[in-house]
Structure formats: C-alpha cells, structure tokens
UniProtKB/TrEMBL annotation:
Annotated UBP-type domain residues: 3-120
Catalytic activity: Thiol-dependent hydrolysis of ester, thioester, amide, peptide and isopeptide bonds formed by the C-terminal Gly of ubiquitin (a 76-residue protein attached to proteins as an intracellular targeting signal)
UniProt protein name: Ubiquitin carboxyl-terminal hydrolase
GO cellular component assignments: nucleus
Alphabetical GO biological process terms: protein deubiquitination; proteolysis
UniProt-recorded Gene Ontology molecular function terms: cysteine-type deubiquitinase activity; zinc ion binding
Species lineage: Eukaryota, Metazoa, Ecdysozoa, Nematoda, Chromadorea
Listed EC numbers: 3.4.19.12
Similarity comment: Belongs to the peptidase C19 family. UBP8 subfamily.
Origin species: Bursaphelenchus xylophilus (Pinewood nematode worm)
Length: 492
C-alpha cells in the first residue's frame, strides 16, 4: 500500500467528491433502496459476475468491473483510480497498488459507522497502536499475502480417541470466511475478561470463543504439523456434559452444542436482557428465521409463529429411493402437510379442535446455511438405522424457492418473485463450503470432511491427513452435513 500517488493528487477534489458519494450509497448503503441499487449495479461489465471479492467501481465514471478486467478501461479512458465495492479501499491501476490517504480513510470510516449504527452494530474507531503493537509491527513490517495455492489456513487435527466428529466441525468452521476475518482481526472480546488462564480460575467460565480464536491463530500462523485440539475438547465436555467421554458422538449433535456454547460466550451483557435482540457473531452468521403456518381446514384461519434456527434437518424418506437432490429435499421440507386426525389444533376462530395443515418456510436466510441430512433414524424396535440413499447436492444453490415470500406468492397463484424481489434474488444464492461425511454404520464409523479453501480449491481432511481433491469427488460424496455460504452479502 502506498501513501503517495500522483494520479490521486492531480484530481484530488473531484475524486474525493465521487468517493464520498459511492461510499455512502454503494459500499455502505444507508437505506433498503440503496441496498437494492447496490445489488443491481455491482456487476462486472466484462464477465458479468457479481460475487467477486475485488469488484471495483471507477472513480471517474459509473463503470463496474472486477479488478482483473479494469485494465482495458484504463487504456480506453485513462481513468486510473477505482474503489473496491467490498472494502472501500482505493486502488490505482497505473501504480498497481492500493492507496492510503487519511482523508479518504476518514470518509470511509464515517460511512461505515453510519451503516453499522443503522444496523445496531458497534462502531469502529481509528486504530492507534500501543507501544507493544508498534514493537510487533517493527519486528514484522510486511503483510502476508495469501497466494492462490497457499496451504496456510489448512492444518490436520489429531484424533484424541473417537473425536473425528469434533475435528470435522472444527475444520468446517475454520473455513468460514466471516469467522476467519472476525477472529484474525481480533474482534472477539472475552466476556469473562480473562487475561490468562490459570488453575485458580473456575473452569466453567473458560471461554470457548477464546479457544476457537486460538485455533484460528494456530491454523494461520504457519506451522503445518497436526494440531492437538485438547483444550477445545475439554471445554466442550465442561459446557456440554452430554458429549463428555471418549465414546462415539454425532457430528451434528456436536455442531449444535458447540454453536450454543459459542453463542453464550459471545453474547454481550446487554443482549442477554429479555427482549434485546442478540447481534453476536454466531447469530449474525448462523441464525435464520423459520416460519410455521398452521391452517385450520374448516375455516381457513392461519396461525403463524416465527422461530430462529441454526440448521435445517432434511428427511431422506425410508431409504428406498436411489436418487435424490438437495433441492428435492428442500421442496419437501417447505411442502404443506396434513397433521392428521390425531393431531387436531385448537382453532380460535372455530372455538373447537379441528384438523389442520402445517407448512414450514424460510422467513429469513442466514449468512451460513447448514443442512443436516437425516441419515440416522430409530426403527420400531428402537434400533438405529443408517439411510444410505445418495443425495446429489450442487456447488451453488438458490434458496429463493424455499423462502416465505416466494412460497406465499406461488400458493396465491401470483408467481415466484415480485419485481422488487428479482433485484435481491442474487443475495439468496449460496456456495458450497464444506461437506461432512460419515463412513460406516450406526455401531461404528468414522467422520471425514471436504473443505473449500482459498476460494476454489478443495481438500479432503481425515483427522491428520489432508489431500487435494477435485470438485467432482466432493459432489458425489454421501453427505451428512452441508455448509453453504452466501455468494453475495447484503447487510440490510
């Protein structure tokens, strides 16, 4: 990053005016209307992609393109300066470097804080390094650039005795870009305010968020030998006693227990008060809203409840089907079903118990969508059975057809998407991030996982062993837990 750029200084006043407009309307939109304008406008004029990390806008004209496709624009128009629509940083195409300018940074920080204030998030302040920080910066003055083929962020985990279920969840969480950025930028503040861990401290109060932060540091600080997640296992045992012990456990059960503890340990004191919406990082990433509609079959009255969810569990049927898709499982999930004569509801309108139908739809989508394929079920003899039916899942999926607004319009015969919803449909597209697989039967088995690292490179992680894979191998795996992340993030 350079501090001096002649191309900025020569047109400084005009560039600053245009930058201030772009940063408050496109980069950090201040209204729902601005958010929709961003979704409609931010698309590369060359390759037509939207979800590109280095999508930029020209600071001299309304041209959008990813950084690699801005070179022709430079030659044709002689416009040198562009701004990242994701981060708000200014890049000079001729200098081939990002520019640091105090005035630009203050404009960007003000716009970001206005945006965060509207969303009810904490405000960011200018960083003034302490003497200890300055000493570390002098010791390591160069930033580390994550090259495309880097293995940094990948590390095997030692199996501590039937702990493959935990290892797979850790590997999946570590690859979530939003969590990585959160922990590696030191955003977590321990609610227990512990500076060091000693034997005198009550172990019940040890922070699982702090340990996950430590794991991120271990994955990204350079060493490649397998990491021993002893402390993570110990803390989970302390806070989720049903998972204690070295017997085999379920990866899905561990995921939900871990998210619950992480959620508790990342909540602020104010968000723990009744009626205050939690905005901790776990809720921001994993929490969606599920709408349940009960319809009285006699009078048609609809009773609606909305509840939060961290994952979606999908039925696979009786296991006799030889070909299913994730889309078909989701379509069945949101399909209206009769509750039957033995499960009548009390209808307030009729004043009596009546037969009813129930329908579940996705009211609000999370940033990270986790799908649990229900491969284990109990037989009438109370024995566990594994369903091995193959389920084909895509690299990218549009969750719009399973949302409440979409399903309601289809049910009313209006059609899938309203005109204004077409603008935001791209924000409902998700990319596959990780796949957890279970090999074996209900009595004995082993978990392994596939993870996407550094945008488009896939690896199989089997405890300590990491091996590169092609996408086709991932998509034909059996699948037990599927993690997807939003392709395009709209913070409105």
């Amino acid at each position: 990053m350079t501090r001096k750029c002649s191309h900025l200084n020569s047109e400084r006043d005009e560039i600053l005016r245009n930058y201030e407009l772009l940063v408050s309307r496109i980069i950090y939109p201040l209204s729902s209307n601005d958010s929709q304008i961003k979704l409609l406008s931010v698309q590369c004029s060359q390759c037509e992609r939207r979800a590109v990390p280095l999508m930029c806008c020209c600071l001299k004209c309304p041209t959008f393109a990813c950084l690699e496709h801005f070179k022709p624009h430079l030659f044709e128009s002689k416009h040198n300066l562009v701004v990242s629509t994701t981060f708000g940083q200014v890049y000079c195409l001729e200098c081939e470097d990002f520019i640091y300018d105090r005035k630009i940074e203050r404009i960007r920080l003000k716009a970001e804080n206005d945006h965060r204030r509207r969303l009810g998030l904490g405000l960011r302040n200018e960083w003034n390094p302490s003497s200890a920080d300055a000493k570390l910066l002098r010791k390591a003055p160069k930033a580390y650039h994550m090259s495309k083929g880097t293995m940094r962020g990948l590390r095997g985990l030692v199996n501590l005795g039937n702990t493959c279920f935990m290892n797979c969840i850790i590997q999946s969480l570590v690859q979530i870009p939003h969590l990585r950025d959160y922990f590696l930028t030191d955003q977590h503040t321990c609610k227990f305010q512990l500076n060091d861990i000693s034997e005198e401290i009550d172990e019940e109060n040890l922070c699982l968020m702090c340990e996950l932060s430590n794991i991120f540091q271990e994955f990204y600080n350079g060493p490649t030998e397998p990491f021993i997640p002893r402390r993570m296992l110990h803390l989970v045992w302390k806070h989720a006693e049903h998972l204690a012990g070295y017997e085999q456990h379920d990866a899905h059960e561990f995921l939900i227990a871990a998210l619950n503890v992480l959620h508790q340990h990342s909540q602020s004191l104010s968000s723990q008060q009744a009626g205050v919406e939690c905005k901790c990082i776990i809720d921001q990433l994993f929490t969606g809203r599920l709408q349940s509609d009960l319809t009285c079959m006699k009078c048609g009255r609809i009773s609606t409840t909305v509840d939060p969810f961290w994952d979606i569990s999908l039925d696979l049927g009786d296991g006799t089907s030889t070909d299913k898709t994730l889309e078909e499982c989701l379509a069945n999930y949101v399909k209206s079903e009769s509750l039957g004569a033995t499960a009548k509801i009390k209808c307030d309108s009729c004043g009596s118990y009546e037969s009813a139908t129930k329908r579940l739809t996705l009211k609000t989508l999370p940033l990270v969508a986790c799908f649990h394929l229900k491969r284990f079920e109990h037989t009438p003899l109370n024995r566990r059975k594994k369903i091995r039916s193959p389920v084909r899942f895509p690299e990218q999926i549009d969750l719009s057809p399973y949302t409440t607004s979409y399903c309601t319009r289809v049910e009313n015969g209006i059609g899938g998407c309203a005109a204004n919803e077409m603008l935001i449909r791209s924000s409902n597209v998700y990319d596959l991030l990780a796949v957890v697989n279970h090999n074996g039967n209900t009595e004995s088995g082993h978990y392994s996982c596939f993870v996407r690292h550094n945008q488009d490179q896939w690896y199989k992680v089997n405890d300590q062993i990491i091996s590169p894979q092609v996408l086709e191998s991932v998509l034909v795996s059996e699948g037990y837990l599927l993690f997807y992340t939003k392709s395009f993030i709209d913070y409105d």
